[in-house]
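Bumping my old thread because nobody answered last time. Still need a sequence for this structure:
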């Protein structure tokens, strides 16, 4: 399936992306760091960083998270150690949940 040219985004998600982008820009400017400097540190292009700061929903979540981390924005209200422990606990829980599989048997609903 081809990637759509525009992606459907809820108002909440669009507002959250815009807010995070502005937080990243504010933190970068507070550190007196140029777009080029932060982009180089994050391993991304200057254009991608501009899109992140503009709240573009098409940006890679990894690039957004890395950029936020580099300027000191905490994405979750957890320190790194607690985040890692919670992530590990959740991974253990997810292993126990059965996967959803499509039903191949035809349901007889003729009463």
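Sorry it took so long. Here it is:
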């Amino acid at each position: 399936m081809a990637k759509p040219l525009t992606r459907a985004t809820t108002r909440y998600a669009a507002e959250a992306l815009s807010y995070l982008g502005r937080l990243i820009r504010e933190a970068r400017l507070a550190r007196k760091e140029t777009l080029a400097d932060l982009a180089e540190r994050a391993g991304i292009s200057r254009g991608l960083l501009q899109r992140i700061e503009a709240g573009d929903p098409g940006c890679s979540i990894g690039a957004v998270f890395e950029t936020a981390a580099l300027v000191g924005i905490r994405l979750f209200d957890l320190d790194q150690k607690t985040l890692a422990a919670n992530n590990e606990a959740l991974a253990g829980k997810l292993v126990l949940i059965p996967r959803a599989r499509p039903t191949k048997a035809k349901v007889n609903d003729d009463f």
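The CA atoms of residues 22 and 53 lie 6 Å apart. Let me know if any region looks off to you.
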